[in-house]
Design brief:
Helices cover about 40% and strands about 25% of the residues. The chain is of the alpha/beta class. The chain folds into two domains: about 80 residues, Winged helix-like DNA-binding domain superfamily/Winged helix DNA-binding domain (Arc Repressor Mutant, subunit A), CATH 1.10.10.10; about 200 residues, D-Maltodextrin-Binding Protein, domain 2 (3-Layer(aba) Sandwich). The strands form three sheets. Strands 3, 4, 5, 6, 9, 10 and 11 form a seven-stranded mixed beta sheet that branches. The protein has a two-stranded antiparallel ribbon with strand order 1-2. Helix 1 crosses helix 4. It is globular, with a radius of gyration of 22 Å. The termini are far apart. The mean pLDDT is about 90.
Length: about 290
């Protein structure tokens, strides 16, 4: 039983799908299958239930995954701690965020102060960020929805209003007290389920007894503003996006709902080793965004 086999199993168990695991690991599917088969033979129990090409983690696999995930996380923490202790100045920090737009103003300053640090960025839903933190795939997360799980710690960075973006000639442009029920039947441009913007849209409409008429849904918040400007519909945009990515073809309005806001937090595992590079990134972004 070697570390590579355990890491292969961990990824297969997360996906419960050989081809998706192979794509993430960038290895051939037969190699993954052989590795899992050898591991099961060595352990003397099946780790997955199989029906045709479908696999599902069974009770043996769930127990094994819980144990080896902890062991692999400890090994990764040990490597990071030893690298810091050896005085390796470069380091690496992995960060996940629902939208990478939140980082665009901050990254040049961080890279100027720490030019040797490698930065890995991931765009993830809140659910995926929780999984990434649990698996120690990322050091830090920027989340506009609460992340829950053992050992997680969060610091609020800021709270900002969420505005209603409409095409420039729209009747609602310039209004400051738009009730949600005035949006009934309007075409909505938003993100797909899992991102904070869609969660807020669904929540506001549900509170008004409405179902949003979603005509466009995607993964990148920054695209919503441009699609609204192109006349495809209306959408909810945080105040930060209006400042960072001004787009003259968009009109702005304010909803009368007191719940039309977002709270951005930075989240990390308080029970895991955080490298010096990750600590500097966390401390700098807290300082940077606290000034906004």
């Amino acid at each position: 039983m070697d570390l590579l086999s355990l890491r292969y199993f961990q990824v297969v168990a997360r996906h419960e799908h050989i081809s998706r695991a192979a794509a993430e690991l960038r290895v051939a599917q037969p190699s993954i299958s052989r590795t899992i088969a050898r591991l099961e033979a060595e352990l003397g129990v099946p780790l997955f239930d199989r029906q045709g090409r479908q696999i599902k983690l069974n009770r043996f696999g769930a127990t094994f995954l819980r144990r080896i995930s902890h062991a692999l996380a400890e090994i990764d923490d040990a490597r990071r701690e030893l690298a810091d202790a050896a005085g390796l100045a470069h380091g690496m920090v992995a960060v996940a965020s629902e939208t990478l737009l939140s980082l665009t103003e901050f990254l040049p300053d961080f890279r100027a102060r720490h030019p040797g640090v490698e930065i890995q960025l991931y765009q993830s839903t809140a659910e995926r960020m929780t999984q990434q933190l649990a698996a120690r795939e990322v050091d830090l997360c920027l989340a506009s929805q609460p992340l829950t799980g053992p050992g997680l710690r969060a610091v609020e960075l800021f709270r900002e209003p969420v505005l209603l973006a409409v095409p420039a000639a729209h009747a609602l442009a310039g209004r400051s007290d738009v009730p949600v029920d005035a949006l009934a039947g309007e075409p909505i441009v938003t993100t797909r389920p899992g991102y904070w913007q869609r969660a807020l849209t669904d929540r506001l409409f549900a509170a008004a007894g409405l179902v949003p008429n979603v005509v466009v849904e995607g993964d990148e918040l920054a695209a919503v503003q441009h699609l609204v400007g192109a006349g495809l519909g209306i959408g909810l945009i945080p105040a930060m996006s209006r400042r960072v990515a001004a787009y003259p073809a968009v009109g702005w309005a304010r909803l009368s709902s007191p719940d039309s806001y977002r709270t951005l937090r930075i989240v990390w595992r308080d029970d895991a080793y955080l490298s010096h590079a990750a600590q500097h990134f966390r401390d700098m972004i807290i300082e940077h965004l606290a000034e906004k």
